């Protein structure tokens, strides 16, 4: 049997840096069946354990191998309401695929690619009819229409709850819409998959900010009997170095929101502009940094640098993103930390950096980067994008008495149920974990939905 | 969709709209702002709130027709709808009952100043006001302010109404003429707020300003609205929009406001979206 995954067709690097179309093109049915037949259908099913939402992977893969793609979709979607999205953005290499037995000798089964194939196949023919579900009359509010909130809402609606999702922006999807770029996750697909997940009668209230437009306590007064908070990571962090407020310095959030949600790549057809210089430095090594760098490249930057203070081994981004970034000519400056953004007449002209070396492991278990003495150097750039994560949005914390929060602002929950210190209030996603992945947020949303359901069942029977 | 209940032209450049927006109106307080998108393809722009009625669920915005989006907004009539209208954003102004306060409204800055001064007056504070603009036509809300302000002073650049000169000239005259104020609340163009703050600094007179930098989401997510306050970076959308006028780095903010000047001209010039 082939020790390697069936390769997935992609746009060539030379072609794709000139457009915002999706990089990976997806398997054909034949390729999917061939890849699916690599699964050993082992009894232990370690892949399922590796999945934050416990998709029954071997079962859906088996259906793919048999050519029963509809059957595969039914299994997939019973555990994961956003499979087309997860197939594209999950870090499979550290989750399901990391545990795959095939991975011990050769490459693991390409579970992510198969998930994507099945979801895309089903979406093509998905009907808009919603199955009829009896409503139980219990109102639940969900704060935030990102991966955590949507999953929680979808699960609860399936169980018969009357769910309202409150979203601060003008579009649902959270990071799926404003953060992850079109070439990695097409927005048409995001909208369609979300619509599918919510067709079970979830009510959507856009342009409502929990903590500003209405508070959590007021939601209870309005008859909601449980509230799930999935309001996301929130405020971008900056490096607190000189020159960070010069024109030409962006947070990755702003840069990507302009480019994705506000479609700045289409300026002036879209009214929101974004500035990209000939040379761009992106600070950080996560998926967001890769997204920002590759977006800058597509917006016309000739030289794009990833500036990361640790070494390649510690890069937190998905392997595929790093690989794609390199193919697209992104230049990686490892063991490099910015110390100052340089400017002239208020605009960025360069960045002063210092070389680092790795010392003893720190609290995160990764080796702590230490500055090398006398290694300062300057390189010219016109745009700096800071992608070093963020801090939780304080709006809900500040307006919800009874919530317990961490020192860094994240909401404290019971990990088994996602229940907060406040009665009837649950939370999940980045607001609990700090910046993490789409799938972890979805896992939290699902867990909370089940816990909310159990709680009401207990009340009903008790 | 948010219904435009009424639309009034205050002068050639400035219009007022009353919008039905119950979620904004219910918890709204003086000093807060909204973000709107005129249609599904629109950009998001922040606008200050001039009045609100939480019972009726309505919010009134006053805007100057200056750029691409305000022109598009201006094309809308009463009875029509705008796509998105979100708020109330920002922290409410921390208003303290004082003995005597003077407000300074420059141009369309009079609009957000109005609810703040009215509230102060309701709290028993004696309120004076300087309204300044380029010319007489651009002075707005004078009649509304008259209902509660003790003294109103008008200044215009061309002398077509009130005193010929700047709001700072009038303020200087008042303070040096012996008028005692506990606080100055200045809202208007950045340059005006900068020079008011420079002047009041000399008198050690507490000054509050309201900043309106470029922003996208208005909830702290994008960080585009960062301003330097007493040497520290703050986000105007969640930490403001009101700040101590003596601590704002105006020059940095003026520069940041100009970040998209070329693009703005571009969009207007080519008549984007058939404006």
Overview of this protein structure:
Helix content of chain A is 34%, strand content 18%. Chain A is α/β, with parallel strands linked by helices. Chain A has a 5-stranded parallel sheet. Chain A has a 5-stranded parallel sheet with strand order 6-14-7-8-9. The termini of chain A are far apart. The mean pLDDT of chain A is 94. Chain B contains 9 helices and 16 strands. Chain B has helices at 22-25, 68-74, 110-122, 142-146, 167-176, 190-203, 236-239, 250-257, 261-269; strands at residues 2-9, 14-20, 33-37, 45-53, 58-64, 81-82, 84-89, 100-106, 126-133, 151-156, 163-164, 183-187, 207-210, 226-229, 232-235, 242-244. In chain B, strand 9, helix 4 (142-146) and strand 10 form a beta-alpha-beta unit. The interface between A and B is large, with 41 and 44 residues.
- As a percent range, the share of helical residues of chain A equals 25-40%
* Low-confidence residue ranges of chain A: none
> What is the rounded distance between the termini of chain B?
21 Å
| Low-confidence runs of chain B | 269-275
Content of β-strand of chain A: 15-25%
Q: What percent strand of chain B?
A: 25-35%
Keywords:
heterodimer; A: about 450 residues; alpha/beta; 5-stranded parallel sheet; about 35% helix; B: about 280 residues; 7-stranded antiparallel sheet; 9 helices; 16 strands; about 25% helix; globular; disordered C terminus
Reconstruct the topology from this structure:
The complex is a heterodimer of chains A (462) and B (275).
Chain A lengths: L12 H4 L12 H8 L9 H5 L6 H10 L2 H11 L3 H7 L6 H4 L11 H14 L14 E5 L3 H12 L3 E5 L8 H4 L8 H12 L4 E3 L10 H6 L4 E4 L5 E2 L12 E3 H8 L19 E5 L3 H12 L4 E5 L11 H9 L3 E3 L2 E9 L2 E15 L5 E5 L5 E4 L2 E4 L3 E2 L3 H5 L13 E2 L4 E2 L4 E3 L2 H4 L4 H24 L1
Parallel strand pairs in A: 1-2, 1-4, 2-3, 4-18, 6-14, 7-8, 7-14, 8-9
Antiparallel strand pairs in A: 5-15, 10-11, 11-12, 11-13, 16-17
Chain B lengths: L1 E8 L4 E7 L1 H4 L7 E5 L7 E9 L4 E7 L3 H7 L6 E2 L1 E6 L10 E7 L3 H13 L3 E8 L8 H5 L4 E6 L6 E2 L2 H10 L6 E5 L2 H14 L3 E4 L15 E4 L2 E4 H4 L2 E3 L5 H8 L3 H9 L6
Parallel strand pairs in B: 8-9, 8-12, 9-10, 10-11, 12-13
Antiparallel strand pairs in B: 1-2, 1-6, 2-5, 3-4, 3-7, 4-5, 13-16, 14-15
């Amino acid at each position: 049997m082939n020790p390697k995954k069936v390769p997935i067709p992609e746009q060539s690097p030379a072609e794709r840096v000139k457009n915002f179309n999706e990089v990976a093109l997806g398997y054909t049915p034949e390729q999917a069946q061939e890849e699916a037949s690599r699964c050993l259908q082992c009894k232990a099913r370690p892949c399922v354990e590796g999945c934050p939402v416990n998709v029954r992977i071997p079962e859906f893969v088996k259906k793919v191998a048999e050519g029963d793609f509809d059957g595969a979709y039914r299994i997939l979607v019973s555990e994961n309401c956003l499979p087309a999205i997860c197939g594209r953005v999950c870090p499979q290499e550290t989750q399901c695929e990391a545990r795959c037995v095939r991975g011990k000798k050769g490459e693991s089964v390409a579970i992510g690619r198969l998930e994507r194939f099945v979801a895309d196949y089903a979406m093509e023919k998905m009907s808009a009819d919603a199955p009829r579900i009896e409503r139980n009359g219990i109102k639940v509010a969900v704060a935030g229409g990102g991966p955590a909130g949507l999953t929680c809402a979808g699960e609860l609606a399936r169980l018969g709850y009357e769910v309202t999702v409150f979203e601060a922006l003008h579009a649902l999807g959270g990071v799926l819409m404003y953060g992850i770029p079109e070439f990695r996750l097409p927005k048409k697909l995001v909208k369609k998959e979300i619509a599918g997940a919510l067709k079970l009668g979830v009510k959507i209230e856009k342009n409502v900010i929990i903590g500003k437009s209405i508070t959590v306590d007021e939601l209870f007064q309005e008859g909601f009997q449980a509230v799930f908070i999935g309001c996301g990571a929130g405020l971008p962090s900056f490096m607190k170095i000189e020159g960070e407020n010069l024109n030409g310095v962006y947070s990755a959030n702003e840069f990507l929101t302009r480019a994705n949600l506000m479609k700045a790549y289409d300026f002036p057809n879209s009214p929101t502009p974004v500035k990209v210089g000939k040379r761009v430095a992106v600070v950080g090594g996560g998926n967001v940094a890769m997204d920002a760098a590759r977006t800058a490249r597509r917006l016309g930057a000739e030289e794009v640098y990833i500036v990361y203070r640790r070494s390649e081994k510690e890069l937190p981004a998905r392997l595929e993103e790093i690989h794609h970034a390199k193919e697209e000519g992104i230049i990686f400056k490892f063991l490099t930390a910015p110390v100052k953004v340089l400017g002239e007449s208020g605009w960025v002209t360069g960045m002063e950096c210092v070389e680092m070396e790795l010392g003893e492991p720190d609290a995160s278990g990764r080796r702590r980067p230490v500055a090398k003495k006398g290694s300062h150097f300057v390189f010219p750039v016109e745009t700096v994008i800071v992608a070093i994560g963020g801090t939780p949005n304080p709006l809900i914390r500040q307006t919800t008495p009874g919530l317990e929060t961490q020192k860094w602002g994240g909401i404290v929950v019971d990990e088994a149920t996602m229940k907060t210190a406040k009665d009837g209030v649950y939370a999940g996603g980045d607001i609990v974990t700090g910046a993490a992945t789409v799938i972890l947020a979805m896992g939290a949303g699902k867990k909370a939905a089940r816990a909310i359901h159990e709680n009401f069942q207990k009340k009903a029977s008790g | 969709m948010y219904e435009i209940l009424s639309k009034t032209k205050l002068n050639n450049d400035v219009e007022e709209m009353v919008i039905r927006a119950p979620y904004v109106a219910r918890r709204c307080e003086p000093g807060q702002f909204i973000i709107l998108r005129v249609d599904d393809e629109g950009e998001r722009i922040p606008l200050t709130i001039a009045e609100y009625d939480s019972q009726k669920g309505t919010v009134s915005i006053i805007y100057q027709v200056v750029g691409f989006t305000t022109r598009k907004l201006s094309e809308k009539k009463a009875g029509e709808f705008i796509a998105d209208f979100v708020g109330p954003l920002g922290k409410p102004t921390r208003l303290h009952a004082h003995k005597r306060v003077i407000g300074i409204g420059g141009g369309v800055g009079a609009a957000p100043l109005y609810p703040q001064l009215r509230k102060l007056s309701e709290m028993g504070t004696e309120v004076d006001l300087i309204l300044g603009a380029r010319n007489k036509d651009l002075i707005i809300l004078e009649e509304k302010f008259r209902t509660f302000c003790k003294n109103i002073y008008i200044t215009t650049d061309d002398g077509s109404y009130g005193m010929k000169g700047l709001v700072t000239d009038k303020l200087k005259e008042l303070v040096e003429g012996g008028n005692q104020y506990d606080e100055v609340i200045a809202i208007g163009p950045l340059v005006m707020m900068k020079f008011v703050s420079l002047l009041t600094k000399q008198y050690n007179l507490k000054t509050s300003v309201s900043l309106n930098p470029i922003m996208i989401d208005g909830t702290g997510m994008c960080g585009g609205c960062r301003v330097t306050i007493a040497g520290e970076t703050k986000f105007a959308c969640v930490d403001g929009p009101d700040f101590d006028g003596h601590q704002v780095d105006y020059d940095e903010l003026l520069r940041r406001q100009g970040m998209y000047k070329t693009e703005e001209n571009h969009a207007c010039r080519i008549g984007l979206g058939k404006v």
